[in-house]
Amino acid sequence: MSRIDALINELCPEGVAFLELQELFDTKNGYTPSTTNKSYWAAGTIPWFRMEDIRENGRILDESLQQVTEEAVKGGKLFPANAIIMATSATIGEHALITVPHLSNQRFTSLALKPEFSSLLDMKFAFYYCFVLGEWCRNNTTTSNFASVEMSGFKRFRFPLPPLEIQREIVKVLDAFTELEAELEAELEAELEARRWQYKYYRDALLAFSDQDIRWAAMAEVGEFFRGRRFTKADYVEDGVPCIHYGDIYTQYGTATEKTVSHVRADMASSLRFAQPGDLIIAGVGETVEDVGKAVAWLGRDEVAIHDDCFAFRHSLNPRFVSYYFQTTAFHAEKNKFVARAKVKRLSSESLAKLTIPVPSLEEQARIVAILDKFDALVNDISVGLPAEIAARRRQYAYYRDRLLTFKEAA
Protein backbone atom coordinates (compact mmCIF):
# COMPACT_ATOMS: atom_id res chain seq x y z
CA MET A 1 0.00 0.00 0.00
CA SER A 2 1.34 3.47 -0.94
CA ARG A 3 1.64 6.29 1.59
CA ILE A 4 -1.22 8.10 -0.18
CA ASP A 5 -3.50 5.04 0.11
CA ALA A 6 -2.59 4.74 3.78
CA LEU A 7 -3.41 8.41 4.39
CA ILE A 8 -6.76 8.08 2.61
CA ASN A 9 -7.65 5.01 4.71
CA GLU A 10 -6.67 6.87 7.85
CA LEU A 11 -8.01 10.39 7.19
CA CYS A 12 -10.97 10.01 4.83
CA PRO A 13 -12.00 6.35 4.51
CA GLU A 14 -15.61 7.33 3.69
CA GLY A 15 -14.66 9.69 0.86
CA VAL A 16 -14.01 13.42 0.48
CA ALA A 17 -16.14 16.51 0.05
CA PHE A 18 -16.49 18.19 -3.37
CA LEU A 19 -17.23 21.89 -3.92
CA GLU A 20 -18.16 23.78 -7.08
CA LEU A 21 -15.54 25.97 -8.73
CA GLN A 22 -17.66 29.09 -8.13
CA GLU A 23 -17.75 28.31 -4.40
CA LEU A 24 -13.97 27.94 -4.12
CA PHE A 25 -12.68 30.59 -6.51
CA ASP A 26 -13.23 34.18 -7.52
CA THR A 27 -13.20 34.17 -11.33
CA LYS A 28 -12.20 37.02 -13.61
CA ASN A 29 -11.76 37.24 -17.38
CA GLY A 30 -8.40 38.24 -18.80
CA TYR A 31 -8.04 41.20 -21.16
CA THR A 32 -5.59 42.96 -23.46
CA PRO A 33 -4.79 46.57 -22.57
CA SER A 34 -5.18 48.99 -25.46
CA THR A 35 -2.44 48.38 -28.00
CA THR A 36 -2.90 51.88 -29.45
CA ASN A 37 -1.86 53.44 -26.15
CA LYS A 38 1.89 52.96 -26.43
CA SER A 39 2.49 54.15 -22.88
CA TYR A 40 0.78 50.99 -21.58
CA TRP A 41 3.54 48.87 -23.10
CA ALA A 42 6.60 51.09 -22.64
CA ALA A 43 8.94 49.85 -19.89
CA GLY A 44 6.14 48.07 -18.04
CA THR A 45 6.79 45.99 -14.94
CA ILE A 46 3.51 44.07 -14.54
CA PRO A 47 3.52 40.55 -16.06
CA TRP A 48 0.88 40.02 -18.78
CA PHE A 49 0.52 36.35 -19.64
CA ARG A 50 -0.44 34.85 -23.01
CA MET A 51 -0.53 31.32 -24.37
CA GLU A 52 3.01 31.89 -25.67
CA ASP A 53 4.25 32.11 -22.06
CA ILE A 54 3.01 28.59 -21.32
CA ARG A 55 4.46 27.26 -24.56
CA GLU A 56 7.82 28.90 -23.93
CA ASN A 57 8.29 28.52 -20.19
CA GLY A 58 5.97 25.88 -18.76
CA ARG A 59 2.99 25.87 -16.46
CA ILE A 60 4.24 27.34 -13.17
CA LEU A 61 5.34 30.88 -13.92
CA ASP A 62 6.63 33.96 -12.14
CA GLU A 63 7.51 36.10 -15.16
CA SER A 64 6.00 36.75 -18.57
CA LEU A 65 7.30 37.48 -22.05
CA GLN A 66 5.51 40.86 -22.07
CA GLN A 67 4.86 43.43 -19.35
CA VAL A 68 2.49 46.39 -19.06
CA THR A 69 2.52 49.53 -16.95
CA GLU A 70 0.38 50.17 -13.87
CA GLU A 71 -1.86 52.59 -15.77
CA ALA A 72 -2.88 49.73 -18.10
CA VAL A 73 -4.55 47.83 -15.23
CA LYS A 74 -8.37 48.10 -15.24
CA GLY A 75 -9.59 49.56 -11.98
CA GLY A 76 -6.06 49.36 -10.62
CA LYS A 77 -6.61 45.70 -9.66
CA LEU A 78 -4.24 42.89 -10.59
CA PHE A 79 -5.02 39.18 -10.58
CA PRO A 80 -3.53 37.95 -7.28
CA ALA A 81 -0.43 35.81 -6.87
CA ASN A 82 -0.98 32.04 -6.70
CA ALA A 83 -3.97 32.18 -9.04
CA ILE A 84 -4.54 29.77 -11.92
CA ILE A 85 -5.19 30.99 -15.45
CA MET A 86 -7.27 28.57 -17.55
CA ALA A 87 -7.77 28.99 -21.32
CA THR A 88 -11.53 29.00 -21.87
CA SER A 89 -11.38 29.89 -25.58
CA ALA A 90 -9.06 29.08 -28.49
CA THR A 91 -6.41 26.86 -26.81
CA ILE A 92 -9.01 25.42 -24.45
CA GLY A 93 -7.83 23.62 -21.33
CA GLU A 94 -4.28 24.99 -21.27
CA HIS A 95 -3.51 26.42 -17.85
CA ALA A 96 -0.79 27.68 -15.54
CA LEU A 97 -0.23 28.55 -11.90
CA ILE A 98 1.01 32.14 -11.66
CA THR A 99 2.97 32.82 -8.50
CA VAL A 100 3.11 36.65 -8.76
CA PRO A 101 0.47 39.41 -9.12
CA HIS A 102 -0.32 39.63 -12.83
CA LEU A 103 -2.69 40.12 -15.75
CA SER A 104 -3.56 37.69 -18.56
CA ASN A 105 -5.09 38.03 -21.99
CA GLN A 106 -8.70 37.36 -22.91
CA ARG A 107 -8.20 33.67 -23.70
CA PHE A 108 -7.86 33.01 -19.98
CA THR A 109 -10.19 32.92 -17.00
CA SER A 110 -8.41 33.57 -13.69
CA LEU A 111 -9.17 31.33 -10.68
CA ALA A 112 -8.21 33.02 -7.39
CA LEU A 113 -8.86 31.00 -4.22
CA LYS A 114 -11.29 32.67 -1.83
CA PRO A 115 -9.57 33.45 1.50
CA GLU A 116 -11.94 31.29 3.55
CA PHE A 117 -10.74 28.17 1.72
CA SER A 118 -7.00 28.80 2.08
CA SER A 119 -6.78 26.21 4.86
CA LEU A 120 -8.66 23.60 2.83
CA LEU A 121 -7.09 23.72 -0.64
CA ASP A 122 -3.44 23.73 -1.67
CA MET A 123 -3.11 25.73 -4.90
CA LYS A 124 -0.46 23.38 -6.29
CA PHE A 125 -2.95 20.54 -5.81
CA ALA A 126 -5.62 22.69 -7.50
CA PHE A 127 -3.18 23.29 -10.38
CA TYR A 128 -2.77 19.54 -10.91
CA TYR A 129 -6.53 18.99 -10.65
CA CYS A 130 -6.97 21.59 -13.41
CA PHE A 131 -5.72 18.93 -15.83
CA VAL A 132 -9.01 17.18 -15.07
CA LEU A 133 -10.84 20.48 -15.46
CA GLY A 134 -9.03 21.11 -18.74
CA GLU A 135 -10.28 17.81 -20.14
CA TRP A 136 -13.81 18.73 -19.06
CA CYS A 137 -13.42 22.09 -20.83
CA ARG A 138 -12.37 20.46 -24.11
CA ASN A 139 -15.47 18.25 -23.97
CA ASN A 140 -17.85 21.10 -23.13
CA THR A 141 -17.45 23.86 -25.69
CA THR A 142 -19.79 26.08 -27.68
CA THR A 143 -18.96 27.06 -31.25
CA SER A 144 -20.42 30.38 -32.36
CA ASN A 145 -17.67 32.48 -33.95
CA PHE A 146 -15.00 30.32 -32.32
CA ALA A 147 -14.76 27.54 -29.77
CA SER A 148 -15.23 28.57 -26.14
CA VAL A 149 -16.08 26.82 -22.89
CA GLU A 150 -19.69 26.58 -21.72
CA MET A 151 -19.17 28.88 -18.74
CA SER A 152 -22.21 28.09 -16.61
CA GLY A 153 -21.08 24.46 -16.48
CA PHE A 154 -17.49 25.59 -15.95
CA LYS A 155 -18.47 27.42 -12.79
CA ARG A 156 -20.30 24.34 -11.51
CA PHE A 157 -17.33 22.03 -12.08
CA ARG A 158 -16.57 20.31 -8.77
CA PHE A 159 -13.18 20.10 -7.05
CA PRO A 160 -12.37 17.41 -4.42
CA LEU A 161 -11.15 18.55 -1.02
CA PRO A 162 -9.16 15.71 0.56
CA PRO A 163 -7.27 16.62 3.76
CA LEU A 164 -4.31 18.95 3.14
CA GLU A 165 -1.84 16.25 4.17
CA ILE A 166 -3.10 14.08 1.30
CA GLN A 167 -3.11 16.99 -1.15
CA ARG A 168 0.52 17.79 -0.35
CA GLU A 169 1.62 14.17 -0.60
CA ILE A 170 0.00 13.96 -4.06
CA VAL A 171 1.73 17.21 -5.08
CA LYS A 172 5.08 15.79 -3.94
CA VAL A 173 4.59 12.63 -6.01
CA LEU A 174 3.38 14.50 -9.10
CA ASP A 175 6.21 17.05 -8.86
CA ALA A 176 8.77 14.23 -8.89
CA PHE A 177 6.98 12.38 -11.68
CA THR A 178 6.67 15.58 -13.73
CA GLU A 179 10.40 16.26 -13.40
CA LEU A 180 11.30 12.72 -14.43
CA GLU A 181 8.89 12.77 -17.37
CA ALA A 182 10.26 16.15 -18.52
CA GLU A 183 13.85 14.85 -18.45
CA LEU A 184 12.95 11.73 -20.42
CA GLU A 185 10.91 13.73 -22.91
CA ALA A 186 13.71 16.27 -23.38
CA GLU A 187 16.10 13.42 -24.26
CA LEU A 188 13.61 11.98 -26.73
CA GLU A 189 12.90 15.42 -28.24
CA ALA A 190 16.63 15.99 -28.74
CA GLU A 191 16.94 12.61 -30.45
CA LEU A 192 13.90 13.36 -32.62
CA GLU A 193 15.33 16.74 -33.63
CA ALA A 194 18.58 15.02 -34.64
CA ARG A 195 16.58 12.53 -36.73
CA ARG A 196 14.71 15.39 -38.40
CA TRP A 197 17.94 17.10 -39.37
CA GLN A 198 19.27 13.79 -40.69
CA TYR A 199 16.07 13.28 -42.69
CA LYS A 200 16.25 16.83 -44.10
CA TYR A 201 19.88 16.29 -45.13
CA TYR A 202 19.19 13.03 -46.97
CA ARG A 203 15.98 14.36 -48.57
CA ASP A 204 17.81 17.41 -49.91
CA ALA A 205 20.71 15.26 -51.11
CA LEU A 206 18.47 12.71 -52.86
CA LEU A 207 16.47 15.41 -54.63
CA ALA A 208 19.45 17.56 -55.67
CA PHE A 209 20.52 14.97 -58.31
CA SER A 210 24.04 16.39 -58.17
CA ASP A 211 25.49 13.09 -59.39
CA GLN A 212 22.89 12.42 -62.11
CA ASP A 213 22.29 13.95 -65.51
CA ILE A 214 18.55 14.48 -65.51
CA ARG A 215 16.17 17.01 -67.02
CA TRP A 216 15.05 20.02 -65.01
CA ALA A 217 11.93 21.78 -66.22
CA ALA A 218 9.75 24.74 -65.36
CA MET A 219 6.61 23.52 -63.65
CA ALA A 220 4.54 24.96 -66.52
CA GLU A 221 6.26 22.47 -68.84
CA VAL A 222 5.20 19.40 -66.87
CA GLY A 223 1.75 20.36 -65.61
CA GLU A 224 -1.08 22.88 -65.25
CA PHE A 225 -2.32 25.00 -62.35
CA PHE A 226 -5.95 25.37 -61.32
CA ARG A 227 -7.14 27.77 -58.64
CA GLY A 228 -9.83 26.77 -56.13
CA ARG A 229 -13.01 28.63 -55.29
CA ARG A 230 -13.97 30.35 -52.09
CA PHE A 231 -15.67 28.76 -49.10
CA THR A 232 -15.59 29.80 -45.45
CA LYS A 233 -15.57 28.04 -42.10
CA ALA A 234 -19.26 28.93 -41.80
CA ASP A 235 -19.81 26.43 -44.66
CA TYR A 236 -18.20 23.55 -42.75
CA VAL A 237 -20.33 20.53 -41.83
CA GLU A 238 -19.61 17.17 -40.23
CA ASP A 239 -20.47 15.16 -43.35
CA GLY A 240 -20.48 16.76 -46.78
CA VAL A 241 -18.12 17.51 -49.65
CA PRO A 242 -14.47 16.79 -48.71
CA CYS A 243 -12.43 20.00 -48.89
CA ILE A 244 -8.95 21.34 -48.25
CA HIS A 245 -8.45 24.88 -46.95
CA TYR A 246 -5.06 26.52 -47.47
CA GLY A 247 -4.52 26.78 -43.69
CA ASP A 248 -4.98 23.02 -43.31
CA ILE A 249 -2.03 22.35 -45.60
CA TYR A 250 0.51 23.66 -43.12
CA THR A 251 -1.32 22.64 -39.95
CA GLN A 252 -3.11 19.34 -40.65
CA TYR A 253 -1.36 17.50 -43.47
CA GLY A 254 2.03 16.01 -44.23
CA THR A 255 3.42 14.90 -47.58
CA ALA A 256 0.22 13.22 -48.83
CA THR A 257 -3.29 12.40 -47.70
CA GLU A 258 -6.17 10.17 -48.78
CA LYS A 259 -8.85 11.93 -46.70
CA THR A 260 -9.65 15.43 -45.49
CA VAL A 261 -10.17 16.86 -42.03
CA SER A 262 -12.91 19.21 -43.27
CA HIS A 263 -16.15 19.08 -45.28
CA VAL A 264 -18.45 21.76 -46.70
CA ARG A 265 -22.16 21.66 -47.45
CA ALA A 266 -23.20 19.33 -50.26
CA ASP A 267 -25.49 21.98 -51.79
CA MET A 268 -22.35 24.05 -52.58
CA ALA A 269 -20.88 21.41 -54.91
CA SER A 270 -21.81 23.23 -58.13
CA SER A 271 -20.00 26.40 -57.00
CA LEU A 272 -16.76 24.67 -55.98
CA ARG A 273 -13.62 23.76 -57.89
CA PHE A 274 -12.01 20.38 -57.40
CA ALA A 275 -8.57 18.78 -57.39
CA GLN A 276 -8.27 15.30 -58.88
CA PRO A 277 -6.52 12.25 -57.40
CA GLY A 278 -2.79 12.69 -57.97
CA ASP A 279 -2.91 16.50 -57.99
CA LEU A 280 -0.59 18.47 -55.75
CA ILE A 281 -2.56 21.01 -53.66
CA ILE A 282 -0.49 24.10 -52.90
CA ALA A 283 -1.12 26.86 -50.33
CA GLY A 284 -1.01 30.15 -52.19
CA VAL A 285 -1.06 32.36 -49.09
CA GLY A 286 0.30 32.25 -45.55
CA GLU A 287 1.27 34.34 -42.56
CA THR A 288 4.97 33.64 -43.22
CA VAL A 289 7.12 33.19 -46.30
CA GLU A 290 7.82 29.60 -45.14
CA ASP A 291 4.11 28.72 -45.10
CA VAL A 292 3.42 29.88 -48.64
CA GLY A 293 3.99 27.11 -51.16
CA LYS A 294 3.51 24.26 -48.67
CA ALA A 295 1.85 21.40 -50.49
CA VAL A 296 0.12 18.06 -50.02
CA ALA A 297 -0.42 15.34 -52.60
CA TRP A 298 -4.09 14.35 -52.87
CA LEU A 299 -4.27 10.54 -53.04
CA GLY A 300 -7.97 10.04 -52.31
CA ARG A 301 -10.11 8.00 -54.68
CA ASP A 302 -12.44 10.93 -55.49
CA GLU A 303 -12.01 14.61 -56.26
CA VAL A 304 -11.67 17.13 -53.44
CA ALA A 305 -12.82 20.78 -53.22
CA ILE A 306 -10.03 23.31 -52.74
CA HIS A 307 -10.11 26.84 -51.35
CA ASP A 308 -9.53 29.83 -53.63
CA ASP A 309 -6.19 30.48 -51.92
CA CYS A 310 -5.02 27.04 -53.06
CA PHE A 311 -3.75 25.81 -56.39
CA ALA A 312 -4.05 22.31 -57.79
CA PHE A 313 -1.03 21.25 -59.86
CA ARG A 314 -2.08 18.57 -62.37
CA HIS A 315 0.85 16.63 -63.80
CA SER A 316 2.12 13.22 -64.91
CA LEU A 317 4.82 12.83 -62.21
CA ASN A 318 4.69 10.68 -59.09
CA PRO A 319 2.57 12.88 -56.78
CA ARG A 320 4.52 11.98 -53.64
CA PHE A 321 7.77 12.75 -55.47
CA VAL A 322 6.53 16.26 -56.32
CA SER A 323 5.32 16.81 -52.76
CA TYR A 324 8.68 15.75 -51.34
CA TYR A 325 10.48 18.11 -53.71
CA PHE A 326 8.30 20.97 -52.44
CA GLN A 327 9.79 20.36 -48.98
CA THR A 328 13.43 20.76 -50.03
CA THR A 329 15.71 23.63 -49.10
CA ALA A 330 16.43 24.24 -52.81
CA PHE A 331 12.76 24.58 -53.69
CA HIS A 332 12.09 27.00 -50.83
CA ALA A 333 15.12 29.11 -51.77
CA GLU A 334 13.81 29.46 -55.33
CA LYS A 335 10.18 29.94 -54.25
CA ASN A 336 11.06 32.68 -51.76
CA LYS A 337 12.23 34.92 -54.63
CA PHE A 338 8.67 35.05 -55.96
CA VAL A 339 6.67 35.52 -52.72
CA ALA A 340 4.82 38.84 -52.50
CA ARG A 341 5.71 40.12 -49.03
CA ALA A 342 2.65 42.11 -48.00
CA LYS A 343 0.94 41.61 -44.62
CA VAL A 344 -0.31 38.30 -46.01
CA LYS A 345 2.36 36.51 -48.06
CA ARG A 346 1.24 35.31 -51.52
CA LEU A 347 2.36 33.22 -54.49
CA SER A 348 0.65 33.49 -57.86
CA SER A 349 0.13 30.64 -60.33
CA GLU A 350 2.31 32.58 -62.77
CA SER A 351 5.18 32.53 -60.28
CA LEU A 352 4.68 28.85 -59.47
CA ALA A 353 4.76 28.05 -63.17
CA LYS A 354 8.29 29.51 -63.41
CA LEU A 355 9.74 27.37 -60.62
CA THR A 356 11.91 24.46 -61.74
CA ILE A 357 11.52 20.83 -60.78
CA PRO A 358 13.65 17.73 -61.49
CA VAL A 359 12.13 15.20 -63.90
CA PRO A 360 13.90 11.85 -63.48
CA SER A 361 12.38 8.64 -64.80
CA LEU A 362 9.23 7.36 -63.13
CA GLU A 363 11.27 4.40 -61.83
CA GLU A 364 13.74 6.76 -60.17
CA GLN A 365 10.91 8.85 -58.73
CA ALA A 366 9.37 5.70 -57.21
CA ARG A 367 12.74 4.63 -55.76
CA ILE A 368 13.24 8.01 -54.07
CA VAL A 369 9.67 8.06 -52.75
CA ALA A 370 10.14 4.62 -51.17
CA ILE A 371 13.28 5.81 -49.35
CA LEU A 372 11.73 9.06 -48.16
CA ASP A 373 8.49 7.37 -47.08
CA LYS A 374 10.50 5.27 -44.61
CA PHE A 375 12.30 8.34 -43.27
CA ASP A 376 9.05 10.29 -43.08
CA ALA A 377 7.29 7.54 -41.11
CA LEU A 378 10.18 7.18 -38.68
CA VAL A 379 10.32 10.91 -37.98
CA ASN A 380 6.72 12.09 -38.32
CA ASP A 381 4.23 9.24 -37.98
CA ILE A 382 2.83 9.26 -34.45
CA SER A 383 2.54 5.46 -34.52
CA VAL A 384 6.18 4.83 -35.46
CA GLY A 385 9.53 5.54 -33.83
CA LEU A 386 10.41 8.36 -31.47
CA PRO A 387 7.17 10.38 -31.78
CA ALA A 388 5.29 7.28 -30.59
CA GLU A 389 7.67 6.95 -27.63
CA ILE A 390 7.09 10.60 -26.67
CA ALA A 391 3.32 10.16 -26.98
CA ALA A 392 3.48 6.99 -24.86
CA ARG A 393 5.38 8.83 -22.11
CA ARG A 394 2.73 11.56 -22.08
CA ARG A 395 -0.13 9.03 -21.92
CA GLN A 396 1.61 7.16 -19.10
CA TYR A 397 2.06 10.38 -17.11
CA ALA A 398 -1.56 11.50 -17.73
CA TYR A 399 -2.89 8.08 -16.67
CA TYR A 400 -0.86 8.05 -13.45
CA ARG A 401 -1.79 11.65 -12.65
CA ASP A 402 -5.50 10.99 -13.22
CA ARG A 403 -5.38 7.91 -10.98
CA LEU A 404 -3.89 9.95 -8.15
CA LEU A 405 -6.56 12.63 -8.60
CA THR A 406 -9.56 10.28 -8.48
CA PHE A 407 -11.48 10.32 -5.19
CA LYS A 408 -14.60 8.74 -3.79
CA GLU A 409 -17.14 11.38 -2.83
CA ALA A 410 -18.35 11.35 0.76
CA ALA A 411 -22.05 10.61 1.21
TrEMBL record:
It comes from the Bacteria. InterPro entries: Restrct_endonuc_typeI_TRD (IPR000055), Restrct_endonuc_typeI_TRD_sf (IPR044946), Type-I_RE_S_subunit (IPR051212). Residues 13-193, 220-390 form the Type I restriction modification DNA specificity domain. GO terms for biological process: DNA restriction-modification system. Keywords: DNA-binding, Restriction system. GO terms for molecular function: DNA binding. The keyword DNA-binding applies. Belongs to the type-I restriction system S methylase family. PANTHER family: TYPE I RESTRICTION ENZYME ECOKI SPECIFICITY SUBUNIT, TYPE-1 RESTRICTION ENZYME ECOKI SPECIFICITY PROTEIN. This is Type I restriction enzyme, S subunit. The lineage of its organism: Bacteria, Pseudomonadati, Pseudomonadota, Gammaproteobacteria, Pseudomonadales.
